[in-house]
């Protein structure tokens, strides 16, 4: 939110006074009495912080360095009661906008806040112009759905908001999460991903939060968890809907104040990372059934991006197919084969229950079997070799029959002859009465 200020000051009366006065000036003011409390505001969209130099749990001037790492555009004004010029110099060195000595007239504070706010807003606008959208370029598709997803993704990337990605398996939630990270200010910080449904609850907990040596048999030395690895960056929690209720409560704590406890540890650790979660299950249904915490749902679902299944955006199929044919051919060090229209048509007609992932697999197999040209029979061959999904074969077969009938200008006798089947069979396969 624009015009937001954080006041970090341990003297409550003083803090309340500043907050009241600044609110009357039209600012939204958040208050913290300690560095620990202030940390939970760092992910919020706050443009200016007013910080006391001497705080109960640390040095406010040292804290500037931490703030600048997580919120580079936040402008900081330091309050020092010590009337020490050295404090002021150190604050500026650490990246503060300016400093004030307690007892300075309030007008000086207003003046500095207004200046700092306008500098911060300008910087934020500049950084939005320079947003790196290369991650989104990797998302292929011209359908209205994909265009909308990219536009929302780019917008959300510029904020610190948590994001929930919905959609079936293989629709591209992972690639979208990475694109959001790459377009965010945390681009140079880590992006870590984990599939929460692939691991048992205990292993998942130690993967997420890490453990202390001796926490369990085999824990010979301390291990960092993914939340610690992702500090300042992004953690992608895939299939969060499958997480146990106990772990859900621990994730909620991370979301509330960045804190967690490693397995076998007694002290609290902290992280400051953006959470992008994804699921193919209906989370609201899971909330109703008591399988997913409602409070966690509302925390992770600050922004929801839904990617429809591939069959619902069939116009993207030829684009994706051509893209992956070229990409995989290059990887296999073979010339890009010619693609027949029937091949593309068959791909477009299929329902793709495994979505883009399945499309990539089918293309890879077709390329391996092809010799310079991608024809529809390669798709059939694939399935015969795999003897896996008969519906895929049926879809391709039906599509092939329709294609030949069309080529024969609707002449079914001619089409049946070309296909090497009887006219009766052709009618049956097309679902027509003979
Ligand atoms: N629009 C797209 N453009 C290019 N590649 C895509 C697109 N969508 C998906 N892919 C590719 O398809 C594969 C599967 O996508 P991804 O892993 O992102 O799906 P997912 O929704 O996260 O699946 P799951 O829920 O099973 O983890 C990946 O190789 C990804 O790069």
From TrEMBL:
Gene3D superfamilies: 1.10.8.60, 3.40.50.2300, Homeodomain-like, P-loop containing nucleotide triphosphate hydrolases. It holds the Pfam family HTH_8. Residues 4-117 form the Response regulatory domain. CDD domains: AAA, REC. The keyword Transcription applies. Residues 139-368 form the Sigma-54 factor interaction domain. Keywords: ATP-binding, DNA-binding, Nucleotide-binding, Phosphoprotein, Transcription, Transcription regulation. The modification 4-aspartylphosphate is found at residue 52. The keyword S-adenosyl-L-methionine does not apply. This is Sigma-54-dependent Fis family transcriptional regulator. It comes from Pedobacter mendelii. The lineage of its organism: Bacteria, Pseudomonadati, Bacteroidota, Sphingobacteriia, Sphingobacteriales.
